[in-house]
Design goal:
It is built from eleven helices and ten strands. By secondary structure, it is of the alpha/beta class. The structure holds octanoyl-coenzyme A (CO8). The site of octanoyl-coenzyme A has 24 residues, from α2, α3 and β6.
């Protein structure tokens, strides 16, 4: 089924997913969230896709948050359902099992910052503004932003960002670990594609387990997480890609990983 609010493009094994509501700075309404859920599931199950880039349409905004028109009329029940639905979609992104790169081309506010944080890696344009301004609307982040932000940048910085609602620039976001890298706006997509190209030839099963070990391991006690890591390590030892990677090293050639 085609999408009304997303663009999905494929470049070899890299998929580029663009939130496409530039007139409202790519705000996420319920229909867009639902399309994101469909698109992400499609990408998860497509073995031809090894890396995903997520960005926003237009020059100005990545995603300016949840659609405030919908928030303005929410009830306690619909607000709870909305938050759970958003959390579910972001959880699918975080645990897609392949790297998802957020190419933050402008405003990443509220739900937009939350979506970027659910991605595996974040590259920001130098002019990007990032934050959790929900407090200005009398609400709080509802797509797990309080949790992911505190885990990414620490409790003190998360509390400051969420309580003040003041967005920060890309350089500051890089300094506190909210984004991995800042690049000139004109080079954002080239850099995102370059990073995707570097990842796309890696062993897919090892990448999936690395994402899994870090995502799930962080939620476990340290000793338990180490056992989990060892189990995944044991599993990856059964793959053709492990045999290829180790053999290629010993034969002094570049490994060719097939995903088996
Ligand atoms: N929702 C709906 N419309 C929006 C949104 C939004 N989040 N952001 C911008 N727009 C619309 C504007 O209303 C405007 O529409 P129109 O042209 O019809 O007036 C258009 O986009 C362009 O925006 P501006 O004219 O405001 O552009 P500026 O360059 O002047 O300002 C800003 C850009 C600073 C980004 C400004 O638009 C802004 O502050 N936007 C709102 C940002 C925000 O508060 N985001 C957080 C939303 S809350 C949230 O994300 C909670 C997520 C969890 C929900 C949990 C479920 C309950």
């Amino acid at each position: 089924m085609p999408f009304d609010n997303l663009l999905l493009e494929r470049d070899g094994a890299v998929a580029i997913l663009t939130v496409n509501r530039p007139k409202v700075l790519n705000a996420l309404n319920a229909a867009t969230l639902d399309e994101l859920r469909r698109a992400v599931l499609e990408l998860k199950h497509d073995d031809g896709v090894r890396v995903v880039i997520v960005t926003g349409a237009g020059e100005k905004s990545f995603i300016a948050g949840a659609d405030i028109n919908e928030l303005a009329v929410q009830t306690p029940t619909s607000g709870r359902e909305h938050a759970l639905r958003g959390q579910h979609v972001l959880d699918l992104i975080e645990n897609l099992g392949k790297p998802v790169i957020a190419a933050i081309n402008g405003y990443a506010l509220g739900g937009g910052c939350e979506l970027a944080m659910a991605c595996t890696l974040r590259i920001a344009a130098d002019a990007a503004r990032i934050g959790q301004p929900e407090i200005n609307l009398g609400i709080l982040p509802g797509y797990a932003g309080t949790q992911r932000l505190a885990r990414l940048v620490g409790k003190g910085r998360a509390l400051e960002l969420v309580l003040t609602g003041a967005p920060i620039g890309a350089a500051e976001a890089e300094r506190i670990g909210l984004v991995n890298r800042v690049v000139p706006a004109a080079e954002l997509m080239t850099e995102a594609r370059k990073l995707a190209a570097a990842l796309v030839t890696n062993a897919p099963i090892a990448m999936r387990y690395i994402i899994n070990a870090i995502n799930k391991g962080l939620e476990m006690p340290f000793a338990e997480a180490c056992v989990f890591e060892a189990t995944l390590f044991g599993l990856v030892a059964s793959t053709d890609d492990m045999r290829e990677g180790t053999r290629a090293f010993l034969e002094k050639r570049k490994a060719v990983f097939k995903g088996g």
